[in-house]
Task: structure prediction
Amino acid sequence: MILPFLAVIAGFYIYPIANVLWLSVVEPEPGLGNYAALFDTESLRRIILTTIRICVVTTFFSVLFGYTIAYAMVHMDQRKQNLMLALVLVSFWISILVRTFSWLMLLGHNGLLNNGLQAIGVINEPIAFVRNELGVLIGMIHYMIPYAVLPLLVNMRNLDMRVMRASQNLGATGTQTFLRVYLPMTIPGIVASTILVFILSLGFYVTPAILGGGKVLMIAEYISVQILITLKWGTAAMLATLMLFGVLGMLYVMSRFMKLSAVFGGGR
Amino acid sequence: MTLPDTGDLSIKNVTKTFGSTTAVDHVNLEVQRGEFLTLLGPSGSGKTTLLMMIAGFEDASSGDIALDGASILNVPAEKRNFGMVFQGYALFPHMTVRRNISYPLDVRKRPKSEIESRVEEMLALVQLEGFGDRLPKQLSGGQQQRVALARALCFAPPVLLLDEPLGALDKKLRIEVQAQLKAIHDRVGTTFLYVTHDQEEALSMSDRIVIMRDGKIEQVGTPNELYEKPRTVFAADFLGKSNFLERSEATYALRPEKIDVAPSGDLQCAVSVTGKIQTISYFGAVQKLMVMLDDGKCLEVDVDIWRNRNAFSVGQVVDLGWTDDAVTKLEG
Ligand SMILES: Nc1ncnc2c1ncn2[C@@H]1O[C@H](COP(=O)(O)OP(=O)(O)O)[C@@H](O)[C@H]1O
Ligand SMILES: [Mg+2]
Result:
């Protein structure tokens, strides 16, 4: 019964991945030349570093804001909490294209914010919010926050609040309770949401292209350029392979932390 | 045991309402220093709510709570210095046993050497030497319960509040831990305010018992006073078993083990009636007879099995008797 499905999965997933792996070592000529290029091509290295830098900053701020939002949500009454959750989920439905262009309209040279600030005389020249790395970060963080919220929310909702009361009863101030008990007990959620956001950020394509104004090149966009325009399939396959193993490595780390969360899971 | 110099808790006319429900209703109670006092009552009688107000997690709607004569209503929970053992223990899952126990001293920033020696002392008190480096997950229920106790006693609180701390343990273990808990109380001399719905637990450990019903205090007394002289039907029924007799407009309580029983014609007693055995239930040391009297009323009688080997069988007609001091006149 499941054999046909396995065949379909193999056909649609395993085969292309294997193909990419293969391409990365045979195009344009057999050998590890594509990988060696990592070490002696300055532009390639810069793209990888830019990607990592943007993803790290995006992840940091998304998780920070996500944590704050999730924390506020679990401390609201049930009705407000459901409303907030609906708002978070709705943002999943709005196309990334729409959201990216909205930022352009809001933050561009003639955007709402710059015009507004100029009108009330706070600034004389428009501030360059977009068409640079800052713009990319704003767009990506905004897009990623809901993804950061969900794992944290699940983690926080499952906490036994009697433990926080116990901490307070034992003489801990609110700050002490947060730092010594609450924060450590939400580490599994923080790790899950960090890795989720980081992996999703790696594949960002539309946002850097639009909000970066062509100045910020990330791996995903570069791969597509290699395939569609310069036709360097070998380089593209090598970068894709690199990303694949990077993601697999992070998923492995995440699975380790998920086991830890079972240890921390309290009485149940 | 020397009397501690603190730990007098007085609860003055305290009421707590949640919307239209009155969880605690004009409760007055003086808890004396060093005392083991138990709040006993069915689920929903307001025991936890009263404890939460004392610990500072709930505000009283009216009334006052004072420690050693000074009101504590305006003292926040983290400054009240009451130890508490929570229902379900509420241990810190990410900390070792040692770190759990040292927590109250850690947050008070006590010197390291003091913390270390105090934790060892506590581990010894609850007989968990050698378990200091485990996580709570790696302990049995009874051991977790003892960690919670050690953690709550570590900073030498004047009063220890315990909310059904043995509820999650199986019966055999519970009896064992009751004895340990009582021994620990006698050693540390802290005032224990203990909440349970288990009457055997209350009887075996307490200096005094407070029976609660619908947020009100039904009766206060030593276990012996409450068992021998219950004032109301509720008190007689909740603490131990009781038969109720209606005699000339009044209700009397009569404990099942205070009834003498003998085959018909054999009994000489102040009061005696005859009846027929309906059922016999076996409990090992005793058997419970349900005896239907001539007027149709049933009495429950406890019989020592060993001293009455093969004396009774279902359907047999027996004489029941009791002395005047075996019955207690009830109010209302
Ligand atoms: N936070 C609350 N909100 C509303 N009602 C409550 C709350 N806490 C307790 N109650 C009500 O107060 C009464 C006493 O509850 P509780 O103190 O938990 O009793 P016990 O501990 O004796 O079982 C119950 O009727 C319960 O439903
Ligand atoms: Mg309760």
In short: The pocket of adenosine-5'-diphosphate (ligand 1) is lined by residues B 18, 21, 23, 41, 43-49 (CB under 6 Å). Chain B touches chain A at residues 55-57, 77-84, 86-94, 103-104, 106-108, 135, 137, 151-152, 155 (CB under 8 Å). The two ends of chain B are 41 Å apart (CA to CA). The first strand of chain B starts at residue 9 and ends at 18.
